[in-house]
Structures are given as C-alpha cells and as structure tokens.
Automatic annotation (TrEMBL), chain A:
InterPro entries: CDK (IPR050108), Kinase-like_dom_sf (IPR011009), Prot_kinase_dom (IPR000719), Protein_kinase_ATP_BS (IPR017441), Ser/Thr_kinase_AS (IPR008271). This is Serine/threonine-protein kinase BUR1. Residues 94-107 have a biased composition (Low complexity). Coiled coil: none annotated. Residues 182-469 form the Protein kinase domain. Its EC number is 2.7.11.22, 2.7.11.23. It is an enzyme of class 2 (transferase). ATP binds at K211. It comes from the Eukaryota. Keywords: ATP-binding, Kinase, Nucleotide-binding, Serine/threonine-protein kinase, Transferase.
UniProtKB/TrEMBL annotation, chain B:
InterPro entries: ARM-type_fold, CID_dom, Ctk3, Ctk3_C, Ctk3_N. GO terms for molecular function: kinase activity. Residues 2-156 form the CID domain. GO terms for cellular component: CTDK-1 complex. Keywords: Kinase, Transferase. It comes from Scheffersomyces stipitis (strain ATCC 58785 / CBS 6054 / NBRC 10063 / NRRL Y-11545) (Yeast). Pfam families: CTK3, CTK3_C. This is CTD kinase-I gamma subunit. GO terms for biological process: positive regulation of DNA-templated transcription, elongation; positive regulation of transcription by RNA polymerase I.
Length: 590, 299
C-alpha cells in the first residue's frame, strides 16, 4: 500500500506496534525497563553537561572563542578557555538535560592537556579583556596560525583585581565591536541565503568575503541546506573552486569566510571598456570547465551555474562559488529515478529538461549553464532571457529550434511536456545568430554544450578535450585584469543600473511635466518617450552599453531604446537586455 | 449530519480544494467520516468531474483527491467500522473520470494522471508494470505510420469503444495508453506534415495557451500553467517528507532495537557459544527487519 500520504506515527519509533497504544501491562514493563536503563546510565554515562537550561541555550549562540580549532598548536585552547566565563559552572549537569554544543578541543590529547591546565589553576572569571573580542579564531593557513601564536607569546597584562560577576551580570557584558578580527568594508552580494560582505582581516590585512547566513526566518534551527553547503565546500580542494577558509559565529550571526575575489563574471562582462580576445575567452572558459569537471568527477552537481556565481580575482584566476543548491548525486540502480527537486538553477541558465519538469536529471544541467556562459563571454549578453518558465522555453525553442523525435526522443516522457508541447515547428536560428559572433571552434563547442537533448550534450571532460582549447590561439592569461579599476560584481552593477534607470525616469518625468506645461492638455501617455515605471522590468538595463557582434567593441548609448528585444532576429545582438533578474532558485530537497 | 447537508458541504469543500496535501486529506476525511451518506457524496464528486465550467487544473487536483480518497479508504478500513467506502463506486467510475481529466483538446494532465493511476493500481495489488513500460515507449505501429502518411487525424477516443467485461482499472490504463499514443501520433504528424517556421514565434502560438478572449475551459492560461508547475513541485517536495518513515510488520513477532540493545547492554560476562549464536541470529533478524522497513530502497 502506498503510504506517501500517511502522517508520521505518533507512537514510539521502534516499538513493535507503533500504531497501537501500548497496553497498561506493557507500559509498566517498559517503565521498569527504562528505570533499569536509567540506573545503568547513572553508573556509566561519562558526559554530564552542566549549567541551567537558560545558560546552555545562550551558549549555543554566544560568540565563543573556541568555535574554531586550528590544526596545530593545541596550546591555543588553554588561552581560550581561560576567558570563557561559562566553563566554570559547566561541570555538574542534571541528568537527561539537553546537551550543549561541545566546548572543548576535539582530540583526546588536547582535552587531557586542557584538564591538566585546569587542575593547575582555576581562575575566577574576570570578564572579556577589552583588547580581544570575538571571534578569535585564526583565519586558517600558515599566516593566520602564526598570528595566533604570536598573540599567545605576548607578555600577559598585569593582573587586575579579580572581579567576580554574578550570573545576572554576565548577560550585560559589553563586547566592543571595534576589536573584531574581520572588519566589514562593504556589501558585495545578496541572495535568499543572506548577504555577502567584503571584509578585512585586521591581523593579516588580507581581504575576505563574509557570507552571512540568514537565520531570522529559520524556525527549525541551523538550516540543513547550509549544512549541506558547508559539508560540500569542506570536501573540495581545487584551484577553480572557491575555498571555505573558516566558519565564524559572531553576535548571533553565522558567517562563512571565503577568499575575496575582486570580480564576478556578470559584473566583469558589464565593464564598458572590456575587450576580450579569443585567448582570454578560452582562458576563462578553460578554468570554468576544469572546475566543473572536478565537481562532476566528485559526483557533485552545482545546480546554480550563472555569471554571478563565477568569480575572478585580479590575477585572472577563476573560481566557481555558491554551493547553496549543489548536491552529490545519488547512486541508483538501473530503472530507478534519482528524483531530485525540479526547483533549481536561475531561470536564464535553466536547461529545457528542467523547464519541462524533469526530476531525474544529472550533471548535464550544469553543462547547459556553462554553454550559456560561453556565448555570454563573446556577446556579453545572456543568450536566453525569459521572465518565467513558459517564456524561457519559448526563447530556447526560438533560438535552438523545436526538437524533432530523432533529436530528443525522451522529451515526450517529461512531466510537463504535454502542457508545453510545441504546436508549430520552429527552425533553429542558433547558427545565424551566433556563428559570426564567435570563433568557429567556440561556436562548435557552444553548439555541443547547448544540445536540447541532455544525453547528447558534451560532458565537462569532452569539452576540455575539444579543439577549442587545443588549437591556436591558445588560452591567454588575463594579465590586464590587475590594471582594471574598481571591483565588478553583479550586485554593484545592478545598483549602478538602478541608479541610472532612476535618473532616466526622473528625466522623463521632468520632460513630461515640461510638455504638459507647454502643450496644455495633451495626452501624456502618447508622448511618453520611456515606458512607465511599472512596465519596466526591475533589473533589466535600459541604458549604458550596447554590444555589437564585433567582439569587444562596446559603445555607449545611453539614449538607446529601453525596450527589451530579447529575441533578436538579426545577426547583431543589439539592444538586448544584459543581465538576468536576480531570480534565485530556492528549492531544496531533503 | 443528514446526507443532503453533508453533500452540500462536501461540494463546497471540493470546489475550494487546492493541490496541497492537507487540503486533499481534509476533503477525503470529510467524505470518509460521512461514509454512510456515500450515495449522496459520491455523485457530488462525479458532478464536478462532469461540470464543463470547472477548470482543467481543478479537475487534475480532483483526480489527485480521488487517489488520496482510495488510499485513506483503505487505511480507514483497517478499523472494523469501515468497509472500504467509495472504493467500488470510484473504481467503476475511473475510466469516466480519466476522460474528463484528459479531454481530447488538452491532455496536459497526462503525467499527473499517470502517477496517480500508478498509485491507485498498487492499492488494488494489480501488476501494472507492462502499462508503465508501454507508457514510456514509442507506441505507433505500422498502421499508424500508414495513416500518418495519409495525414489522417487520430480517431477520437471513446469510452464506448472499450469492452465492458474488463476490470475498470484495466480499462482506465488502456484509455491512458491510447491518449499517450494519440499525443505521439499528432506530434509526428506535426513534425512531418507541417511547415517549419523561420521567424520567431510568440508564446501563445508556440504553445497551447489560453488567451483572455478564449472561452475554452479545457485550455490553460499561462498563469494556470505556471501555478500547475509550482503545485507539482510542492507536491513532489511533500511526497518526500515522509520518506524517513519506516513500516514494520504489524503482527509477526520480532525483536526490536530497544529489546536487543537492552538485553545485551545488561550482560557483563563473556558469551558462550550458544549465546553467541543467539546474538548473531537476533542481529541478523533485526538487520533484516530494518532493511525491509524503508520505503525507498536502500543500497
């Protein structure tokens, strides 16, 4: 019997008849058994968490010094633990109470050293020294470790008179904000997960990216999706995949800390003076494929490939970022479906099989995304810009042509195929539209990455062996990047664009008013040169740059028509919208 | 509650039904709690399916409701008070219900109907694997190819053409396969007989989308399509939420994890050969029970 609609059983999980209430006799027997077990627990259980419920709950979120355990130097913890006020009353717990997070070092050796240290000297709590606020963990890597050790070697300040605080006072300790290790400089990104900030490590003077997890809306504790992201990031070690430096808990906020990257691909391509030669495109795309190949080899699907998740630093090194939607692939037997969620990938980069409701997809969904990005490298505009699933699929079919039975025989088995079945045949305009905009090898690679049938699409491995990378001109490092002024992220680009749009609208309004005054009762709508605010899609540029097919020739045309013609029919990809609306796929699966 | 009042209330519930699982289960529970009024409530369900003003999306949701009602009826009937209410009536009406969910002008709901029908068939313990294989395969035979050459449209699918002696569930499967075949036939016909357009085509020409002026209730508007997608995704997500539940054999005697653990936890001495064998046997038995209790196959 299919019981996918059945609510969870109310009874104990492992009892024999969980759907039936236990009889009185069995209840009594269970009670005796439980009592026996409790007695055993009393005798055997070693771990005894301590403090009141309130203390422990607070400790869960309190910025602690011991959230990070560097690989070397177990001595760190001696220092750290001395300052932690709650450890003094953490020893004698009540049995069966909720266990707080582990506070000591993880290894046995370190714990033993710590215990010895404690035995020697148990100091009363003197408050958090003003010079050191949380977080105190080093940034990881050699340099950071060294900094921490240097700190420990510094002579200790002269002992102050011990000032004992009562429990109630502990809550009002002031933690000065100025002493943080990471000082935020500006926001560089935002999504459903939270915000990303650029910050400076005050100890090493290096810049990092702080990704602040959004926990306000979480009612069920730490989001499992963030756990998945952290777990995946920890398992990666590749030059083209962003590295997680550490996690930080500060003032009830949880941060993921990454190396700072100056640009993202979307922001970078929006630079008005950018000229990319063939070798540059190859260099960028090769790194992207190397990173993706690494992920796919590890059975990981990224599921959110788009320009703003591809980061570049000033040396031209590329890293794939944002694993909020990524997952490892299931191992399934023949005939079984992996059954993943369909709600993934930002709509402009979403492949046709996902738009038609597929839940048994694979790595090919990422390949479609990088195919779109390859075109974008040459034309600087996203290839398929739909506003919703229907529009997106329409744009794809209009460019790639409607699939024939030979092209894609399995399309008829996709869940939404009958709902979005083409009722006319459309010819492919891909060649006419992009062949002249790209090099012949680049075009051939794009064609193979953007096959409608996911089974016919190149794999990352095949793409890397394509003659695009092996024939001249060879990939050329982006040496000019160090001279690029400023940092180019989609976030700031959007901001700039919004500002520009507002300016245009203000101008239009002013003009309107002027016209009104001069013409008396003229119908305003008819004379409007610009669409009204509500008609203009939020993140679509109305101005700034217009691209022509000549790679890298970008001319400024602020007064160009703001209407978006996303499906340009001629060779020239002109006056198209440039960047995806920040549609964030937030579907997660258990 | 008197039957007439129950039928009225039920009609209201069905008209406001949403594809959210709770809504479907609530409606099914209402029907089952008033099972003694089945003679009044069952026609209420059928009336909505027959109603030509009801949107196709709603009919698809109602088909999911039928699936839930089958399921809940089986579950309720574990109590002696219930004797599989609605099951026989609904089973008899299934072919008719299917045809109203998949009208000839629009079979958008074919995939969700297929999924629901699979679940319903499982409840009746009928093997439908050959139908599942058929559904996923290319169904056109030599006659169809011949007809395609002549550009003959696919004949209308009618319930009267089906033999009456066959189990209604099998008839429903046959109808579903015919619908799928029709779709494949018409697609091949379109690909081979229609011209290929070189210009860009707007959404409403490319897809079967209802325009504002269009009166045909069997067509879906763009908004309908997008909300259908969202509902399907939500239903898919919810169907996974109970995957962690395990089903243990209800009657037979077997050892539980608790019993096993407590028993050996309380032993302090070394086990002799006999005890050791008993231990391994119990462990094997326990492992087997656990392995069988997962809904999704473990590897």
């Amino acid at each position: 019997m299919s019981d996918r609609y059945r609510p969870p059983p109310a009874g104990p999980r492992s009892s024999r008849d969980f759907q039936r209430k236990p009889s009185f006799k069995s209840r009594e027997r269970n009670r005796d058994r439980d009592r026996d077990r409790d007695r055993d627990n009393r005798e055997r259980d070693v771990y005894k968490p301590g403090g009141s419920q309130r203390d422990r709950e607070r400790d869960m979120y309190r910025p602690r010094n011991d959230t990070y355990t560097p690989k070397k130097g177990p001595d760190n913890h001696k220092d750290v633990h001395k300052d932690t006020p709650n450890d003094t009353h953490k020893d004698e717990p009540s049995l069966g109470s909720k266990r707080g997070p582990p506070s000591g070092p993880s290894s046995y050796r370190k714990r033993r050293e710590l215990a010895k240290e404690k035995e020697k000297k148990i100091e009363p709590f003197r408050g958090i020294p003003s010079g050191r606020g949380p977080p105190l963990g080093p940034r990881g890597g050699k340099k950071a470790g060294a900094t921490n050790q240097q700190q420990q070697q510094q002579p200790k300040p002269p002992k102050q008179k011990p000032q004992k605080l009562s429990k109630s006072q502990i809550y009002s300790i002031y933690v000065p904000g100025g002493s943080r290790v990471y000082q935020r400089t500006q926001q560089v990104g935002e999504g459903t997960y939270g915000k990303v900030y650029k910050a400076k490590n005050t100890k090493t003077n290096e810049f990092v990216a702080l990704k602040k997890l959004r926990l306000e809306s979480e009612r069920e504790g730490f989001p499992i999706t963030a756990m998945r992201e952290i777990k995946l990031l920890q398992s990666f070690d590749h030059p083209n995949i962003v590295g997680l430096l550490e996690m930080m808990v500060e003032q009830n906020q949880i941060y993921m800390i990454f190396d700072y990257m100056d640009h993202d691909l979307t922001g970078f391509l929006s630079h008005p003076d950018l000229v990319l030669e063939e070798g540059h495109c190859k260099y960028i795309f090769q790194q992207l494929m190397e990173g993706l190949n690494y992920l796919h080899k590890k059975r990981v699907i990224h599921r959110d490939i788009k320009g703003s998740n591809i980061l570049l630093d000033s040396t031209g090194c590329l890293k794939i970022a944002d694993f909020g939607l990524a997952r490892t692939m299931k191992i399934v037997n023949d005939g079984e479906s992996p059954d993943y969620t369909n709600r993934v990938i930002t709509i402009w980069y979403r492949p046709p099989e996902l738009l038609l409701g597929a839940t048994d997809y694979g790595r090919e969904v990422d390949i479609w995304g990088v195919g779109c990005l390859l075109i974008e490298l040459y034309t600087k505009v996203a290839a398929f810009q739909g506003f919703d699933e229907v529009g997106q699929l329409c744009r794809i079919f209009n460019v790639m042509g409607t699939p024939s039975i030979v092209d894609w025989p399995d399309i008829q088995n996709l869940p939404w195929f009958e709902m979005l079945k083409p009722k006319v045949n459309v010819a492919s305009k891909f060649k006419a539209k992009y062949e002249s905009a790209m090099s012949p090898d680049g075009f051939d690679l794009a064609l193979n990455l953007l096959r409608l049938n996911p089974k016919a699409r190149f794999t990352a491995e095949q793409a890397l062996q394509h003659r695009y990378f092996t024939e001249e001109p060879f990939p050329l490092p982006l040496t000019f990047l160090k001279d690029v002024e400023g940092e180019w992220h989609e976030f700031e680009t959007k901001k700039r664009r919004r500002k520009e749009r507002k300016r245009l609208q203000d101008e239009a309004k002013a003009k309107q008013n002027k016209d009104k005054q001069s013409q008396g009762t003229v119908d305003v709508d008819a004379s409007l040169p610009v669409k009204s605010v509500s008609e203009v899609p939020l993140d679509i540029p109305q101005s700034s740059t217009v691209n022509t097919v000549d790679v890298g020739t970008v001319e400024s045309n602020i007064d160009s028509d703001i209407e978006i013609d996303a499906v340009a029919t001629d060779d020239k990809i002109s006056e198209e919208a440039k960047h995806p609306k920040g549609q964030e796929s937030d579907g997660y699966e258990p | 509650m008197d039957p007439f009042e129950a039928a009225n209330q039920f009609a209201q519930i069905l008209k406001g039904i949403t594809p959210v699982l709770q809504s479907l289960v609530r409606a099914a529970h209402f029907a089952l709690k008033n099972a003694e009024s089945e003679d009044y409530l069952f026609p209420t369900i059928m009336n909505i399916f027959k109603d030509e003003t009801v949107e196709l999306n709603t009919k698809s949701t109602l088909f999911q409701f039928v699936e839930v009602l089958f399921n809940e009826s089986y579950f309720f009937s574990q109590q002696p008070k219930y004797n599989y209410p609605y099951v026989q009536n609904m089973k008899e009406a299934l072919p008719q219900i299917l045809l109203s969910v998949l009208p000839s002008s629009n079979i958008s709901n074919i995939h969700s109907a297929y999924t629901s029908l699979k679940h319903i068939t499982k409840l009746f313990k009928i093997d439908c694997s050959n139908y599942i294989d058929k559904f996923d395969s290319f169904l056109l035979d030599a006659d169809d190819i011949e007809n395609l050459k002549k550009d003959v449209p696919f004949p209308e699918i009618d319930l009267d053409d089906e033999p009456e002696t066959v189990d209604p569930l099998i008839t429903t499967w046959n109808l579903l396969i015919k619908k799928k075949k029709q779709s494949q036939y018409e697609r091949v016909r379109l690909l081979t007989k229609s011209e290929i357009l070189d210009d860009d085509v707007p959404e409403d020409i490319l897809f079967n989308i209802k325009e504002k002026t269009d009166k045909d209730v069997d067509k879906l508007t763009k908004k309908n399509i997008i909300s259908r997608m969202e509902d399907d995704r939500e239903a898919h997500k919810r169907s996974k939420e109970t995957l962690w539940l395990v089903t243990r054999p209800p009657k037979s005697s077997y050892i539980t994890e608790d019993e096993f653990l407590n028993h050996y936890w309380n032993k302090y001495h070394a086990l002799d050969v006999e005890e050791d064998n008993a231990f391994l046997d119990s462990l094997d038995e326990l492992n087997q029970v656990v392995a069988e209790s997962y809904k999704d196959k473990q590897f």
